[in-house]
Every structure is written in C-alpha cells, then in structure tokens.
Amino acid sequence: MTNNAGPHNIQPNNQIAPTTSIGHVHLKVASINRALDFYHGVLGFEIVIRMGNSAAFL
C-alpha cells in the first residue's frame, strides 16, 4: 500500500482558544496502580473514587 497524499502546507497553530476546556478524559492504562502513582502521587490529582483494579476517577 502506498501513500499517494502529496505534501501539505499546514501551518501549526500553537494557541488554544481561551474558551477551551477539558471535560471527561478516559485513559486505558496497563497498570492502574502505576497510573495512580503518577497522576495522584506526582501530579497531585485527587482520587475521587476507586473501583478496585478496574477504574479510578480523579
């Protein structure tokens, strides 16, 4: 299979609109414990609820 798309003249826009917000984000991780160590332990996200080894809401 070949890629027939030619070069694109895309200019990066490094700005995010001031009205932009992030709502719900779902991340699938290999290890919930390692993920919580990072997001809670390093970044300081509050653990709202944990559902065993299947899910956590931060």
Core attributes:
10% strand; 1 helix; 58 residues; two-stranded antiparallel sheet; elongated; 2 strands; alpha+beta
Topology, pairings included?
Blueprint lengths: L31 H11 L6 E3 L3 E3 L1
Antiparallel strand pairs: 1-2
How do the SSEs run, as a string of H and E? HEE
Mean pLDDT: 87
Major β-sheet strand ordering = 1-2
Percent helix:
10-25%
Overall outline: elongated
Low-pLDDT stretches: none
Query: What proportion strand?
Result: 5-15%
Q: What is the number of helices?
A: 1
Based on secondary structure, the structural category is alpha+beta
Rg calculated over all Cα atoms: 19 Å
Largest sheet: 2 strands, antiparallel
**Distance between the first and last residues' Cα:** 42 Å
Would you report the number of β strands?
2
Describe the structure.
The chain is of the alpha+beta class. It has one helix at residues 32-42; strands at 49-51, 55-57. Helices cover 19% and strands 10% of the residues. The chain has a two-stranded antiparallel sheet with strand order 1-2. The chain is elongated.
